[in-house]
Amino acid sequence: MTDDKDVLRDVWFGRIPTCFTLYQDEITEREAEPYYLLLPRVSYLTLVTDKVKKHFEKVMRQEDISEIWFEYEGTPLKWHYPIGLLFDLLASSSALPWNITVHFKSFPEKDLLHCPSKDVIEAHFMSCVKEADALKHKSQVINEMQKKDHKQLWMGLQNDRFDQFWAINRKLMEYPAEENGFRYIPFRIYQTTTERPFIRQLFRPVATDDQLHTLGDLLKEVCPSAVAPEDGEKKNQVRIHGIEPVLETPLQWLREHLSHPDNFLHIRIIPQPAD
Amino acid sequence: MAEEPESALQLPPSIAAEGEGPTEVSPETATPEPPSSAAVSPGTEEPAGDTKKKIDILLKAVGDTPIMKTKKWAVERTRTIQGLIDFIKKFLKLVASEQLFIYVNQSFAPSPDQEVGTLYECFGSDGKLVLHYCKSQAWG
């Protein structure tokens, strides 16, 4: 695993140039300038947008401000999804920078979870890590860690400290020498089509046996429409972290190198854009 | 009303959000509401038949959280964790401001928008999904 460490760094330091604009119906005391920011792909919106919030709050009155939320082309952005995933699902074929609209009113209760504090993000993040470990190691590794190790994972993510994070995360990526890989691969597949609700989530373990399963195997089993080319034409695009991996890539490798900090492999499938 | 702890009672199709009902909250007398969009499955690419089935859930109380009289429930796969939380809170007559946490495997709390069906597929055993519920954060 160490020889591909560059991949881990590339994933960690991936950034998306973003332009935040205040929603036109928000009440301001003076003109609100847009705010530009490089967003880390692997983090969460509400964790990295304190400056955005402060920037717009400066031109608003206190009484007009309630919980901040973000939207792209009419779709509320779920802060509990990794930023890179949101971008790949919604905006990957648009020109950069990613244009996000900022709201302080009319929080869409049906679409978004509330995020009153950083503790909520931490709780969500740690839950994902624990859920992933339940699949990989029957929770043994995460449970054997001390509380301070859990804290270090979170602080590493929050403070953008790659080495601090991976000092602990590497333990979650290990497996006993006699096995070929993890018990199950934690993954989530996201699809967008015009007929369905915005995001559908498939979530099933795939057993790794003596044969190394590939990405193609996983998709064929779980989401056949994504790979079966009926007339030879590729119907859908499969992306992880904004890149399209070769379908023959072993799942175990993808798992170790392209997982998000929450220890999940977030795979997004969208229809092939018509050129 | 006679208690039948062994039978899996049916969760109402959706949760009515209005105020207090009869003193004895019973699923059979819950006001029927138009099914939420989550309960109606589009059924296009889903594995045939799976999304219409219900799964069995066993609810276990943690700490000093009140114990539900009926612990075993049959729930639609597309029911979200949030939907389940709302239902338990109503069943236990907790006020809306009181928090309730649900845990899988006594280790993690799934995010409220996760569907119980997908959790069952990964973490179910012996034909059911065991969920622990608690008014405070039991497992961090």
UniProtKB/TrEMBL annotation, chain A:
Conjugated with ATG12. Its main location: cytoplasm. This is Autophagy protein 5. GO terms for biological process: apoptotic process; autophagosome assembly; autophagy of mitochondrion; cellular response to nitrogen starvation; immune system process; negative regulation of programmed cell death; piecemeal microautophagy of the nucleus. The lineage of its organism: Eukaryota, Metazoa, Chordata, Craniata, Vertebrata. It comes from the Eukaryota. Residues 11-104 form the Autophagy protein ATG5 UblA domain. Belongs to the ATG5 family. It holds the Pfam family ATG5_UblB. It is found in: Cytoplasm; Preautophagosomal structure membrane. It comes from Balaenoptera musculus (Blue whale). May play an important role in the apoptotic process, possibly within the modified cytoskeleton. Its expression is a relatively late event in the apoptotic process, occurring downstream of caspase activity. Plays a crucial role in IFN-gamma-induced autophagic cell death by interacting with FADD. Residues 184-268 form the Autophagy protein ATG5 UblB domain. It is a peripheral membrane protein. Keywords: Acetylation, Apoptosis, Autophagy, Cytoplasm, Immunity, Isopeptide bond, Membrane, Ubl conjugation. InterPro entries: Atg5, ATG5_HBR, Atg5_HR, ATG5_UblA, Atg5_UblA_dom_sf, ATG5_UblB. Residues 119-174 form the Autophagy protein ATG5 alpha-helical bundle region domain. GO terms for molecular function: Atg8-family ligase activity. GO terms for cellular component: Atg12-Atg5-Atg16 complex; autophagosome; mitochondria-associated endoplasmic reticulum membrane contact site; phagophore; phagophore assembly site membrane.
Automatic annotation (TrEMBL), chain B:
Belongs to the ATG12 family. This is Ubiquitin-like protein ATG12. GO terms for cellular component: Atg12-Atg5-Atg16 complex; autophagosome membrane; phagophore assembly site membrane. It comes from the Eukaryota. It is found in: Cytoplasm; Preautophagosomal structure membrane. Forms a conjugate with ATG5. Residues 22-42 have a biased composition (Low complexity). The lineage of its organism: Eukaryota, Metazoa, Chordata, Craniata, Vertebrata. It is a peripheral membrane protein. Transmembrane segments: none annotated. Ubiquitin-like protein involved in autophagic vesicle formation. GO terms for biological process: autophagosome assembly; autophagosome maturation; autophagy of mitochondrion; glycophagy; piecemeal microautophagy of the nucleus. Keywords: Acetylation, Autophagy, Cytoplasm, Isopeptide bond, Membrane, Ubl conjugation pathway. GO terms for molecular function: Atg8-family ligase activity. Residues 1-52 are annotated as: Disordered.
